[in-house]
Design goal:
Structural class: mainly alpha
Helix content: over 70%
Radius of gyration: 24 Å
Number of strands: 4
Largest sheet: 2 strands, antiparallel
Distance between the termini: 29 Å
Strand content: under 5%
Number of helices: 22
Strand order of the largest sheet: 1-2
Shape: globular
Length: 540
């Protein structure tokens, strides 16, 4: 028992900052979501119009919750509950992979298993650690909703729904850590499962049966195949059903028990899904460090590009629906204009808003690519590359170049998909230019984060991952939601995503483009120059 307490305290201490950010961020999203609903959809008629439009369009139901009434609480659950559950799921999967397969891959697990703790106790401690994190997340989310004045029962159910979805993915993450050979493979598997189950939930909602008054939806059977679907079936602030949350709890604990059983059947550092065997000799395409960077990052870039294409097609195919909604509720057009900052027609505003989201996706791709430098350095594989006739400046430059090209790939996929959407809707000539300008601007904004990540890597290498992702999150919050929360305009302009060029009636307003180009050039030059004098900083 003493060994279990030590292991649990070690996990709590190691994750104290990360879990605080995840949990507090989730609770703040719930609290801010209520403010957004009451300000933007203050009347019953406003909420009825939005729900009717959502029930008429399956695409909206794919990315929103389950309609369950027109009260402020039920509408809030429709808007944000899937995203609260998504944050809990991501927190849980990253937590368990970090403490299981990640520790095993780094050699730390073998040292712990050699102590009286044995092989199972560290996994049990990780499970308890994850359960406690989700309980705290559920409690703080519920308290945040209660603080807004919403009914207590619905608030508690909303928090519990998010928390039990996190527990379900706690079990999925533990199982993935047993199946896959590396932490990267385990994380990739859990993310793909997360995306698939999120979409299955959306398909189940979209294929459901709407009520006669167009204010609620009875989901089709696919929604019951997803932990996100179970969370939504609680219908907080309407039916207030508690039993669906038990599905997520039982599912997570059953998978956790299965993963502990599977762990006893394999050797240390082994897996049930065998690694793909590499070639004895590398292809000519891998004869340079630049090609190696492409090989290491190509899979994630393809995934981000797929997300970019989906964003582009939605930007140009949903404009007609948004036009219809805004005609019934002018507040929608006002909100979109505040976020997008465009001054033209509603079509342009919709494209600008979606391409702001695209800029955030592309920036995430760039950060993930350049952060790989820190992972290579910490794991010691960078030393093998730098031992060859490869200078450290060139090594870093290769990652930055690939990061910038990855941004262009993601944005290019979105622009092409957006043009296809314009063509399918009749081919409004002006929208082709609007999509191209929005894409170019967001590409420059996203590329800024590639060089910022490189600069952080040079100056404070051990904080590279935390600082780089925090910069993207801060810029996204200021650029997307700053105007909605009434923050001063200058705070929103601190975000690169908010100062990109837009098309107005007289032509193209470049806004902060030249400042972004200057930051891109200066940041890249500074990172590469400082890298000349920097020593390697191995270790986590």
């Amino acid at each position: 028992m003493n060994a279990f307490g030590i292991l649990l305290r070690q996990r709590l201490r190691r994750d104290r900052l990360q879990l605080t950010l995840w949990i507090v961020g989730t609770a703040l999203m719930a609290f801010a979501g209520y403010a957004g609903v009451t300000q933007s959809y203050a009347t019953l008629a406003d909420r009825q119009n939005i729900l009717a439009a959502a029930l008429a369009n399956p695409v909206i139901l794919m990315f929103r919750g389950l309609p369950s009434g027109t009260s402020e609480g039920a509408f809030l659950a429709f808007e944000v509950l899937p995203w609260l559950a998504l944050l809990a799921a991501l927190m849980s999967t990253f937590l368990v992979v970090r403490h299981t397969r990640g520790d095993e891959e780094a050699g730390r697990a073998e040292l712990v298993w050699a102590t009286p703790a044995g092989r199972r106790l560290p996994t049990v401690a990780t499970l308890v650690h994850g359960l406690l994190a989700n309980v705290v997340l559920a409690a703080l989310t519920a308290l945040a909703l209660i603080a807004t004045g919403l009914p207590t029962t619905g608030s508690l159910l909303s928090g519990a729904a998010a928390g039990t979805c996190g527990i379900a993915f706690l079990g999925i993450g533990l199982l993935a850590a047993q199946l896959m050979r590396t932490s990267r493979g385990a994380n990739s598997l859990t993310v793909w499962v997360l995306v698939a189950t999120f979409l299955i939930r959306g398909i189940g909602n979209a294929a459901g049966t709407p009520s006669d008054d167009l204010t609620s939806m009875a989901s089709a059977w696919p929604a019951w195949l997803s932990p996100f679907g179970w969370a939504e079936q609680t219908r907080p602030y309407d039916a207030d059903l508690a039993w669906p949350i038990l599905l997520g709890l039982v599912f997570g604990l059953v998978l956790a028990a299965a993963s502990i059983a599977l762990q006893s059947l394999r050797d240390i550092d082994a897996s049930f899904v065998a690694e793909r065997r590499g070639r004895v000799s590398a292809r000519p395409a891998l004869a340079s460090p630049h090609a190696l960077v492409w090989r290491l990052t190509s899979g994630s870039i393809i995934g981000w590009a797929a997300g970019g294409a989906i964003t582009g097609i939605l930007a140009t195919t949903l404009s007609g629906l948004v036009d219809q909604i805004s005609g019934e509720n002018p507040a929608v057009a006002e909100i979109l204009t505040q976020i997008g900052g465009a001054t033209g027609g509603l079509d342009e505003v919709v494209v600008t808003v979606f391409f702001t989201l695209l800029g955030i996706l592309a920036a995430c791709c760039a950060v993930q690519t350049v952060v790989r430098t820190r992972q290579e350095e910490a794991h010691g594989t960078a030393e093998s590359v730098l031992a060859a006739p490869v200078g450290r400046v060139r090594w870093l430059a290769d990652f930055v170049i690939v990061g910038v090209v990855a941004v262009l790939i993601v944005v290019g996929a979105a622009v092409l998909a957006g043009w296809i959407g314009v063509w399918s809707n009749g081919g409004d000539e002006s929208l082709y230019r609007i999509v191209a300008v929005a894409g170019l601007g967001q590409a420059v904004a996203a590329a800024v984060f590639a060089v910022l990540t490189a600069l952080v890597f040079v100056l404070i290498p051990r904080a590279t991952t935390a600082v780089a992702w925090s910069l993207v999150l801060l810029a996204a919050m200021l650029g997307m939601f700053g105007p909605l929360f009434g923050l001063p305009e200058w705070t929103a302009n601190l975000s690169p995503f908010a100062v990109t060029p837009v098309v107005d009636g007289r032509g193209i307003d470049v806004r902060g483009l030249w400042w972004l180009v200057l930051a891109l050039a200066a940041g890249g030059a500074a990172a590469l120059t400082l890298m000349r004098r920097r020593e390697l900083a191995s270790g986590a």
